């Protein structure tokens, strides 16, 4: 059954460990940047190992509306001719569904185009502080208006003919406005200075943006929180897309939660993202031993037990794996504390608070941590638990919440029913097949179960 057809999934308790060889998707953040840079280059670019998720597909469709041309496309390779500065305004609104990254970066691309571009996101984006951080558009000489309605976040951007100047970006709640402004800055008409003020989150993603821009010929000088971008063209580039470390987190999560585990990720290519490096260190501390063989391109994951009695995690630079860490935390021997993750509540749903609520329903105990101003910004556990599960939990319209709750369900005595599998195409379309390959039994809720399940769970079907 294709995951697109399934909403509720009953994850059965794991009785015989998780073992096997799996593959994970290529990196969504690298793919999204590669698509944008290919659009902004005025020569053909090649994307090797394209990471096709619904979000990167939406971005690619948007790039075509702006004028990118597909020269060749197969499973392994995409060749695209960009427009450089001569992109035209799209004839139809540019749709970004629930992707704030696509919305913000396409709004930035629209600044380069004289004429009007309409960018549209779905209702979930109205609940997020997406338009709050678009000041860079007007600062650099373009204009935008909010023309949202009850069901869509929608803006009209009118590109500037003399794009240049200085903008100050608030980096405390999301890194994406910095990435958006940086990506288009080389194609402005004059120098662009981008500064930020405040403690940044997701710095690894900004570093990735800079690295990929520079590889493609952009002239960016950085001095602490200030970037000076001088006009330059993006040249043609071959982008080799690495593995997606956030997708990896759900496989590693299964290893951490189930413990009796020996899993190999085939075709694994580290991404160089500092967020990934930090996450790998955290996995080691939580007792997941990872051995990377760069020649065979495999990553072997086994459970060895945490190195220390308590593990402290700073989540500022690892926003995407915070829900996975919440799912893992109740199942490891160590006391786990995750701090500085208030920004993760600005994601597709308030990811920290919904994980604490839904994990609570499964019977997990995580204590919320608050900042001095009362804002939820972390959680802590007191060691390994044996939660019952056996209830239905909700993915809150968010692919990452679905996979994180499914990860926790693997460790619950009665498994759980998790709603939201239809969201998987956003980043990890083959996730349920990966579970199957690991020996996990799951079935669409409401259908005949593959094995007897406790009465408490049956009652929910
Ligand atoms: O630039 C990117 O590709 C991303 C940046 C981060 O966004 P925030 O800084 O808004 O958390 C991250 O959470 C998101 O999944 C991907
Ligand atoms: C990048 C993500 O989200 P967004 O772009 O909506 O912040 C994500 O959920 O993987």
Question: What key attributes describe this structure?
Answer:
2 domains; UDP-n-acetylglucosamine1-carboxyvinyl-transferase, Chain; 14 helices; 461 residues; EPSP_synthase; binds shikimate-3-phosphate; RNA3'P_cycl/enolpyr_Trfase_a/b; disordered C terminus; Enolpyruvate_Tfrase_dom; transferase; alpha/beta; four-stranded mixed β-sheet; 24 strands; amino-acid biosynthesis; binds phosphoenolpyruvate
Topology:
Blueprint: E1 8-11, E2 18-22, H1 28-40, E3 44-48, H2 54-66, E4 69-73, E5 77-81, E6 94-95, H3 100-110, E7 116-121, H4 123-126, H5 135-139, E8 143-146, E9 153-158, E10 165-169, H6 176-184, E11 192-196, H7 203-215, E12 219-223, E13 226-230, E14 238-240, H8 245-258, E15 261-266, H9 274-286, E16 288-293, E17 298-303, E18 310-314, H10 322-328, E19 335-339, H11 351-362, E20 367-370, E21 376-380, E22 392-394, H12 399-409, E23 416-419, H13 431-437, E24 442-444, H14 455-458
Parallel strand pairs: 2-15, 3-14, 6-7, 10-11, 18-19, 22-23
Antiparallel strand pairs: 1-23, 1-24, 3-5, 4-5, 7-9, 8-9, 11-13, 12-13, 15-17, 16-17, 19-21, 20-21
Helix pairs in contact: 1-2, 1-7, 3-6, 6-7, 8-9, 8-10, 8-12, 10-11, 10-12, 11-12
The chain binds shikimate-3-phosphate and phosphoenolpyruvate (PEP).
Phosphoenolpyruvate is lined by residues 98-101, 320, 347-348, 400, 427.
Keywords: Amino-acid biosynthesis, Aromatic amino acid biosynthesis, Transferase
Domain Enolpyruvate transferase: 18-435
Family: Belongs to the EPSP synthase family.
């Amino acid at each position: 059954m294709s995951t697109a057809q399934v909403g509720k999934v009953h994850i059965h308790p794991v009785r015989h460990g998780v073992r096997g060889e799996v593959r994970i998707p290529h990196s969504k953040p690298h793919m999204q940047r590669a698509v944008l840079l290919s659009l902004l280059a005025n020569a053909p670019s090649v994307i090797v190992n394209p990471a096709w998720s619904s979000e990167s597909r939406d971005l690619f469709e948007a790039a075509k509306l702006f004028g990118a041309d597909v020269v060749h496309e197969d499973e392994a390779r995409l060749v695209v001719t960009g427009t450089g500065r001569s992109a035209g305004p799209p004839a139809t609104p540019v749709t970004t569904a629930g992707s704030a990254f696509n919305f913000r970066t396409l709004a930035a691309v629209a600044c380069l185009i004289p004429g009007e571009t309409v960018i549209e996101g779905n209702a979930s984006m109205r609940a997020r502080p997406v338009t709050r951080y678009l000041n860079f558009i007007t600062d650099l000489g373009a204009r935008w208006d909010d023309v949202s309605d009850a069901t869509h976040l929608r803006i009209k951007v009118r590109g500037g003919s003399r794009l240049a100047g200085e903008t100050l970006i608030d980096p405390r709640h999301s890194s994406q406005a910095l990435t958006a402004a940086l990506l288009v800055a080389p194609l402005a008409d004059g120098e662009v200075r981008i500064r930020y003020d405040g403690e940044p989150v997701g710095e690894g993603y900004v570093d990735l943006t800079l690295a990929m821009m520079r590889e493609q010929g952009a002239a960016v000088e950085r001095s602490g929180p200030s970037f000076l971008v001088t006009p330059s063209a993006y040249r043609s580039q071959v982008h080799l897309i690495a593995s997606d470390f956030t997708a990896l987190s759900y496989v590693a999560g299964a290893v951490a939660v189930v413990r009796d585990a020996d899993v190999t990720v085939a075709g694994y290519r580290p991404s160089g993202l500092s967020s990934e490096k930090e996450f790998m260190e955290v996995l080691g501390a939580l007792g997941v031993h990872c051995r990377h063989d760069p020649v065979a391109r495999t990553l072997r994951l086994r459970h060895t037990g945490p190195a220390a009695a308590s593990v402290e995690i700073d989540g500022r630079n690892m926003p995407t794996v915070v829900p996975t860490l919440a799912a893992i935390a109740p199942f490891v021997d160590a006391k786990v504390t995750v701090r500085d993750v208030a920004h993760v509540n600005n994601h597709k749903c308030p990811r920290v608070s919904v994980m604490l609520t839904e994990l609570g329903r499964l019977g997990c105990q995580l204590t919320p941590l608050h900042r001095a101003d009362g804002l939820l910004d972390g959680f802590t556990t007191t060691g390994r638990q044996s939660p019952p599960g056996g209830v239905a939990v909700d993915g809150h319209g968010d692919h990452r919440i679905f996979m994180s709750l499914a990860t926790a369900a693997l460790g619950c005595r009665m498994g759980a029913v998790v709603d939201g599998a239809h969201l998987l195409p956003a980043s990890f379309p083959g996730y349920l097949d990966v579970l199957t390959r690991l020996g996990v039994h799951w079935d669409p809720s409401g259908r005949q179960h593959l094995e007897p399940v406790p009465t408490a769970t049956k009652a929910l079907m």
